[in-house]
Amino acid sequence: MLRYRQNRIVESRLTLPVVAVATLILWCVVLCFKDFALEEVLPKLGILSLSTYLMMLLNNENALIRIYSRMVSCMFLLISTSAIFNIISLRAALCQLGFIIMISLLFKSYQDRSSTGLTFYAFLCLGLISMVYIKVLYLVPFLWVMMLTFLMSFSIGTISASVLGVLTPYWFVGCIALVMQDATWFEEHFAQIFTFSTDISELSVNEVILFTVLFVFGVLGAIHFILFNYQDKIRTRLFYYLLIELSVLIGVLTLLQPCDSEFLLPMLIVTVSPLIAHFVSLTHSRLSNITFHLVILAILYCIVFNLWTPLLTF
């Protein structure tokens, strides 16, 4: 079997350290030459570093790639870096972090109908995300279906734990509101779940480009996985089907609610990164080698465009 540059890169133990150092240098260059406040950038860098580490653990603990490869975390780091400065806000970065933790905990509950603790903490993360972005609760019914079909952890106990997990943050806030005798926050917060806007003009050019790149990566990764999933273990197949369905749901929600792209695009990065990583890590043809270089060029284009082009709107 011929080993192209693509295969040497994805299987190298130096790939993730090199990508991490290059990303750090990019952040330093941006701080030196762009008008970004240090107190604005450092929290984002810290959250991105933790999110990348958790994506690496997600890959290692669940064997998402059946060979040694760090491309799941590398792709996540590169795509997130391309959007972190003017698309992903600090609130969105925190939601992205919580989304990664939620998926990791759900994967741990695989085939365990008594995993009430893991399910509670997974949906607690979802509840915390909903404190910032309430419409993420639309995913709850679909997550229950995925627990039944892909994770096989669906039971009365886990469903009850999921409901309690989502409600727990609101209980604490409710206690504070009760003491303060002010329910204004609750009224304004839950009113947002019924607020809809399909105005495409609310999307910036930067967001359109990022969504297009994620769409192409997601379709490419999903098609490759569906064609060659027989080579993976059943457990891995089910995890990828879950990620594909989440990608579709979040993508459709982004198209229906472009006003919420600030929160939806970071979540889409989480679900698409393993899909494109699966493709670039497990293909070995001349065409895939060319495609790999095009993928890298697309990410580099996003980075350059988002950093050195003003935030444009339609």
Characterise the protein shown here.
- The protein has helices at 5-10, 15-33, 38-62, 71-83, 90-108, 116-132, 140-149, 156-180, 184-191, 205-228, 234-256, 261-281, 286-308.
- By secondary structure, it is mostly helical.
- 74% of the residues lie in helices and 0% in strands.
- The model has no long low-confidence stretch (mean pLDDT 89).
- The longest helix is centred in the N-terminal third of the chain and has 25 residues, at 38-62.
- Helix 3 (38-62) runs parallel beside helix 5, helix 5 (90-108) runs antiparallel to helix 6 and helix 11 (234-256) runs antiparallel to helix 12.
- The protein is built from 13 helices and no strands.
- The N and C termini lie far apart (48 Å).
DSSP strand tally: 0
Q: pLDDT average, as an integer? A: 89
Q: What is the radius of gyration? A: 20 Å
Distance separating the two termini: 48 Å
Describe the main β-sheet briefly.
Answer: none
Helix content: over 70%
Strand percentage:
under 5%
Q: Could you name the ranges where pLDDT drops below 50 across 5 or more consecutive residues?
A: none
Topology as a string of helices (H) and strands (E):
HHHHHHHHHHHHH
Count of helical stretches: 13
Given the C-alpha coordinates, what overall shape results?
globular
Return the structural class: mainly alpha
List its salient traits.
74% helix, 314 residues, mainly alpha, globular
In brief:
The protein is mainly α. The chain has helices spanning 5-10, 15-33, 38-62, 71-83, 90-108, 116-132, 140-149, 156-180, 184-191, 205-228, 234-256, 261-281, 286-308. Helix 4 packs parallel to helix 13, helix 5 (90-108) crosses helix 12 and helix 6 (116-132) packs across helix 8 (156-180).
